[in-house]
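Subject: sequence -> structure tokens, single chain

Hey, anyone have a minute? Need the predicted structure for the following. Not urgent.
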Amino acid sequence: MTTTALTHTTVGLGRSRSGGRALGALTDIWAMTRRNLVHISREPMQLSDVTLQPVLFTALFVYIFGGAIPIPGGSYKDYLLAGILALNLVTSTMGTAVGLSTDLHEGMIDRFRALPMWRSAVLVGRSVADFMTSCLCALIVALTGLAVGWRADASTASILAGFLVVLFFAYSLAWIAACVGLNSKSPESAASFGFIVLFPLAFVSNAMVPTLHMPGWLQAIANWNPVSAVCAAARHLWGNPNPSAAVSAWPMQHPIEASLIWSVAILVIAASSAAHFFRRRITE
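Reply:
Had a minute. Here:
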């Protein structure tokens, strides 16, 4: 972060001490959020995973694989969009791990420790900034989907709810990524989290293809994969083809409830763990 950005952050943090504790914490969070957004604006290629990648993946799967994947009750274009959204949001959480690890190893966290601020604002501010980029990703996925022929057969409120379900799940995963970033030995090792965990999590699911024709053992894993529940919930809310509704597994029969349960459980456990790891790192 440049000297100017750090000065702006310090001013914002100084103002937070003059108000109440809650107002001060909110001001600290906004200062950290703004700092991360400014950093992104100066390196826009950081957004390639939530801007260019959704367009490329949508075109790749629709025009290359779409004709070879039959979907009961509808077109592959309508089936695919929920999976593309989940795939991009899940894999983009890797940026949270890399960003926190970079701040730790470049000494930025040590500088923040010297400021009169709420310490956890570093984590919350990062998560808020990443959530904003996730919203940008959702917008690009929706526009790209409309361009290739995706249509939702539901009310505006239901369509919005479908996007919020996926965004909430991605936000919860970002806190797992925060735990990885706080425990990694370098930004490079933090980046490997995406390839070791996030990509298998996204692909061993119903995101790209229905699970009905998978081998029995793999189908069981995919049906209980939280990504499958999130994709099925979005398709249900959007009125898109949802072959998973024919699967007897509980998450596929109750995808909205399963998605929310997974998201809340992950958020509670991962956020508390990230706070613990952060306190440990700043006291070392």
